[in-house]
């Protein structure tokens, strides 16, 4: 009987040790013992920038939809009284700005690509086709500054992550 009781005691100790080890691992998994270094500062700044650009894209998209639906402008600036080129560009930006806003808010790679498409499209329309929106160099400069800021933040965020 002493052999059986010794075996039972060893089995109970092994079970207790395994339970303690499992409890320790589960507590370590959910605890905040892992120290996250503050090395992702540029990534946080990039995500904040993307969210700000998402809000700006929402405003721009809603502005274009307001032009399409007639919420802004008078009788002479009505959508149906504009040229076909203006109507096409306005509908294009009304849709693509809102799609870009969703992707930017989620900080997805496709959101940045769609936003880049809107930036380049607006710059091309303003510079190459000034008859559509008036050829504002202020709009082009703003888009260029935002693009440069995005590229700089994306580059710095990529540098802080190991390959």
Automatic annotation (TrEMBL):
The keyword Repressor does not apply. Residues 1-21 are annotated as: Disordered. Keywords: Membrane, Transmembrane, Transmembrane helix. This is DoxX family protein. The chain crosses the membrane at residues 46-66, 86-106, 113-133, 139-158. Signal peptide: none annotated. InterPro entries: DUF6163 (IPR046161). It comes from Bradyrhizobium ottawaense.
